[in-house]
Amino acid sequence: MQWSEYTTAERLKALRSGMTQEQLAEAARVSVGVVRKLERGGTASLPSLLSIASTLGTDIAVLLGQQAPRRSMDRDERAALRTLSAATHDAAIGIPGDTEPGTVAELRTVIQHADAAYWAGRYTELGTLLAALLPEARARYDAADTDEREAAAGVLADVFQTAGMAANIWGSRDLAYAALTYGRQIAVQAGDDLREAHLAATTAWVNLRDGRTAQGFALATAQADRIEPRMSEHDPDRLSVYGQLVTNAAVAASRGGASADTAREYLSQAHAVGARLGGEHARGGHGQPYGPLYAATQAMSIAVALGDTAGALRLMDTVQLDETVPLATRARYGLDVALTHVECRRWERAADSLAGVCAMAPGWVQHQMLPGVIISRLAGVSVGRLRGLAHAAGVPLGVR
């Protein structure tokens, strides 16, 4: 049964999970009667529905069945998302925090902790860190003198970028776009073209998660053209950001944003950039490290998207990931491996690969859609094992 086939009442009961009707009503600032009416099959005003959906950490399209849930969120994560939303918009407006901000160096250290939490799938911790970081970074930026202004702007832009990444993984696309736009505005004001391009690369990735492949392709290619390094240039920061942009362009093209030939053309550029770097490198130690291994993981994703099973099998035999590749990136590669096994009707090997991802990245996997797709296609696996995989992956209702 698909998510759209359930009633709004059934979807609401599933989405509120451990929350009581009273807790949901209080958090959403609606009456308990509104929640009860919905769960009896009644209707509610659009403002009430929007407030309830926001409180549940989802979109109104999910609540009304027009879109399947994109993630599995517990109460702590929902609370963290609400706090993150308020902190993001307050920091953009410039509402001052209640605490004395740390120095630029101190805030940079906390950003590194937030990045580590993101890549490890510790999302509740990430939300807590960002809720404190955003007002402090804004206060430091506002208080900075001329000498410190550029560094403080960089800190604030990077915090907005991590906030956008967090909102994206939680499926809150509007908040992700907003946070990344706020960060780009700060980078533009500071004349920091590389940070601006890095934020654009993340925005293009959000476009992909949002199904807006043509927009993601256009943004990634335009920014790649703008910051393309000269052949004699070996700045690892610029190469890393450029590599992410051409890779995002290749992924977007493979998923319908452009032609298959275009995807292969940009993927070739991505491999070339990885080779020039010679290893994994993140711009300023922030965000997704880029290098030959990351390019290889995305080559696998592109092969899967293009239906190139032979190519995916070749990559499976040659790609060896190590600890320089973040956990979330390794986990995503594991899902592509599982999908390739499914295409080859290797049911148990696909199930083994998915089980490995669930064990390796339990926090991350519950916010992905691919596990549900894989489980729905595991025709040769026992029902008992499917149930175990679905539980581990947090597969939502409507996906087998």
What does this structure look like?
It is globular, with a radius of gyration of 21 Å. 72% of the residues lie in helices and 0% in strands. It has helices at 8-16, 21-28, 32-39, 46-55, 60-63, 75-93, 104-120, 123-143, 146-169, 173-189, 193-209, 213-227, 236-257, 260-277, 292-305, 309-318, 327-343, 347-360, 362-365, 370-377, 383-393. The protein is mainly α and 400 residues long. 48% of the residues are buried. It is built from 21 helices and no strands. Helix 11 (193-209) runs parallel beside helix 13, helix 12 packs antiparallel against helix 13 (236-257) and helix 15 packs parallel to helix 17.
Kindly estimate the percentage of residues that lie in beta strands according to DSSP: under 5%
How much helical structure, as a percent, in the residues? over 70%
Total number of beta strands: 0
Structural class: mainly alpha
> Count of DSSP helices?
21
Mean pLDDT: 90
Nearest-angstrom radius of gyration?
A: 21 Å
Note the main sheet: none
Shape by Cα distribution: globular
Task: Outline the fold blueprint.
Elements: H1 8-16, H2 21-28, H3 32-39, H4 46-55, H5 60-63, H6 75-93, H7 104-120, H8 123-143, H9 146-169, H10 173-189, H11 193-209, H12 213-227, H13 236-257, H14 260-277, H15 292-305, H16 309-318, H17 327-343, H18 347-360, H19 362-365, H20 370-377, H21 383-393
Task: Tell me briefly what this model is.
Helices cover 72% and strands 0% of the residues. With 400 residues, it is mainly α.
